[in-house]
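Summary for the funding panel

The consortium committed to producing paired sequence-structure records for every protein in the target list. Below we show the first two records in order, beginning with the earlier of the two.
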Amino acid sequence: MQAIAPLFEPVYEALLDELRAGAHWHADETRWEVFVDIEGKRGHRWYLWVFQSRAVAYYVLDASRSAAVPSAVLAEVDGGTISCDRYGAYKKFARLHPGFTLLYCWAHQRRDLLMLANDYPQLAPWALAWVECIGVLFALHAQRREAWLAGREYGELDRGLRATVQEMADKREAALADPTLPAPAAKLLTSMRRHWAGLTAFLDRPQRALDNNEAERALRPAVVGRKNFYGSGSQWSGQLAAMMFSVLMSLRLWQVNPRTWLSAYLQACAENANRPPDLAGFLPWRMDAARLAALRSAPAFTQPPGQSLT
C-alpha cells in the first residue's frame, strides 16, 4: 500500500484544484487516531476533515483542529459560502478571510433543542415547540428552493419564509426578556441569537440547504471505520486513508463504480511503467458522456483460470 500511494497523489492534487474552483462547500471534521509519537504533540488524536463541493469530496488528515486547516485547503480562493456547524475554527477562518460567509446548520440547532428536552423533561414542551418551528422553517425553505431550482417565480414563498424567520427572532427575544425563563433555555436562545447571522444567511441564498448533512454523511464511512479499527498505525497510512476517502467518495458523487474506476486506473498505471497516467480520462468532470457511462457500469466478472463456478 505504501508503494502504490504515489500513484494516487496526482489525483488527490486534481481533486483539490477542482474543490477550489467551487463557490460553496460543506465542511466538517471528526477525530482520527494516528498511532505515532510526534515531538511536541501529546497523545494520538488527529482529525480527519472533509470539504465537499458539488464535484469533489476532499479529505485532509491533520494533527490539529484549528482554522489553519480550512485556510490551507481553501488557499488562494477569494471567497464563497461554507455550510458548517458552529465550531470556533470556522468562525476564526471567516474572520481571517472576510470573503467567506458561514451558513450555520439548523439541524444542529434542532439537535440542541432535542437534547434540552431529554436532559430537562420539564422543559420538553417548550423545546419541542421550537423544534416544530424549525420544522416549518425547513418546509418553507424546501418549497422556495424547489421553485428557485425550477426557475419559477418564488417571491411570495420568499416573503412567507422571511416573515417566519422574523417571527422566530421575535419569539426568541420575547423569551429572553422573560425573567422566569429557566437558565438552560436562556443559554440555548442566547447561543441562537449569537449565531443568528449565520443561521439566516440562507435567506439570500435559496439554492443552499439549511443543514450540513452532506458533510456529515461524507464523514460517516470514516466514523464507522474508526469504530472498527480505531484509525491509522502510521502517518503515511493515515494520509493514504485521507487520499483514498477523497478519491472514492468523489467517485460516489459522480455515481462512478469504484471497482471499475480502480481497475482501469491501476491498469493504466501499469501500462505507464508504474507511473500515474494522463488524468484526463479519470477525472469525472473532464470526461465525455461515453467515458463517464463506461465507468459507471459494473465490471464484468472474469473467471480465474482453472477454477469452476460450482
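The next record, for a separate protein in the list, is shown here:
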Amino acid sequence: MTPILKLTRHNTKKEIEFELRFLKSLSIRKRFEMMFKKTKEMINLLEKSGYRKSSEIIKRT
C-alpha cells in the first residue's frame, strides 16, 4: 500500500522529503516498472490528444 501524506498547510520541504523517502523504499525493479508504466500512460495520452509518431522519412530516388 502506498503511504499518503496529510498536511494541514502547504509545506514543500515536507512534501519533497516524503517523496524521497518513498522512492528510497522502492527496489530498483519496482522503480523501473513504475517508469515504464508511466511512459505507456503518457504515450496513450499523447495518442488520444492527436499526437502520433512522427512520419517516416521517405528516401528520394
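Regarding this second record: The two ends are 58 Å apart (CA to CA). Helices lie at 12-25, 28-48.
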